[in-house]
Amino acid sequence: MNAAAAAERVARESYGRLLALLAARTRDVAAAEDALAEAFAAALSAWPRGGLPDNPEAWLFAAAKRKLIDAARRRKTASEGEQQIMLGIEELEAEMSARDAPDKRLGLMFACAHPAIEESVRTPLMLQVVLGFSAERTASAFLVEPSAMGQRLVRAKKKIRDAGIGFEVPEPDAWRARLGAVLDAIYAAYTSGWSDPLGADPERRGLAEEAVWLARVLVSQVRDEPEALGLLSLMLHLEARRPARRDRDGRFVPLDEQDVSLWTRESMLEAEAALRAASLAKRPGRYQLEAAIQSAHATRAWRGEADWDAIVLLYGALSELTGSPVARLNAAAAIARRDGPERGLAAAEEVARLHPVLNDYQPYWALRADLCARLGRAEAARAAYAEAIAREDDAAVVRFLIERREKI
Amino acid sequence: MKYAIIVYESADDFAAREDARAKTYWDGHGAYFGALQAAGVFTGGAGLMPPHAATTVRLRGGARQVVDGPYADIKEQLGGFYLIDVENLDAALAWAEKCPGASTGAIEVRPLVEMNQ
User: Residues of B with CB below 8 A from A79's CB?
Assistant: First the structure.
């Protein structure tokens, strides 16, 4: 790896940790972001020339700290006297150098998930401040105009600062209300990392691992919370299949065709244990259901066949619970596997009729194309593949879809 | 941080100040005030007379316009406010929900702009 790429990787990995640390004291997320951005720019110009420092994170912290102090001097706000900021930063320094410093990212995530923050912006905000997503990227993930998303994020950061939202993981009775948004952000980060398994995009590299790590921290801090365990289980099941998702030539391999001997047994077993622990609470939820679906797929590794009855049932329960058109679509795909392509296609068309938004969703067209092809409706299948290809960003998946279309 | 706990009261809440429920009403605010003081977070505040006592003034083009009534004629009206100094928004919200009127009206929590000495 060249120096520039190494610098970029270190910088990315440190982003959320440093931002959480810098913002925890002042609650001024935007100021911490500005300081950190300047520190990163300095690092990206200094490191490739002079080599990586011994402790890159401490280097970044020191640089960001200077920027933060400079900014505070310039601003001289009425509410945060310079002395107060200096005091806060001395405390931060002690925390930074302490071994096993507690990870403040979780506290920052809970601040973003505060009920005082507008609901629709909570998850995007977490993705931006904890994981360094740009406004453009969160906007595209949430189907919102980038400028509108940018404004909402700015407003939310002002609210955190000016309303004095605390950065602590809340007490058990308060965290339930916020946990959902925290779980959603972790999963959104995971899926964003998941869709780029080769790690070609530096922004996404390590994002999936980061998400799993955050879920582990969450599980250790909010003990016995079944949905947190459910999310961890879900991500571990998906992680287990990572080695089988691409063939030697980097081609996309759909779940049905994956070589189960490549699935990581260790992750699968841990996923199963987490799901069992979650089920003890007898409070089912979205992530537990999704983990159970993956668990039913995982039975293929042991019994040679996924449990399609369970998958159809669980997707049904999931779509009941969430009203999500994607869950309904997945139920249709499972019906196709269990009851044949004709039934599956009818179910998928019914879902698309009820939820026109699916007409912009790549997996809908890919499913439709596959089922039409299996029913011998070649023209309809080719047209559906064209629609799917037009809606896919991942080059490996595009290649897969093109190959499928050519085989008709 | 310093916050204003702003109490919006319904017409019925205002009526409760003077009818058979008056003792309960005033005892409630008295107890709340006592709790704020005992916790060492109270820094000021005032109860306000009902909206019928309000007069709104505007200066437009140098001319004074005076009208009867509160600034905004809405269902719930400003009835008073407490000023407190607590660690963060969650602490302020915890006090706000204990405020009499939280279950009948609405309590707005607003940080104060801190003035330089």
Answer: 113-114
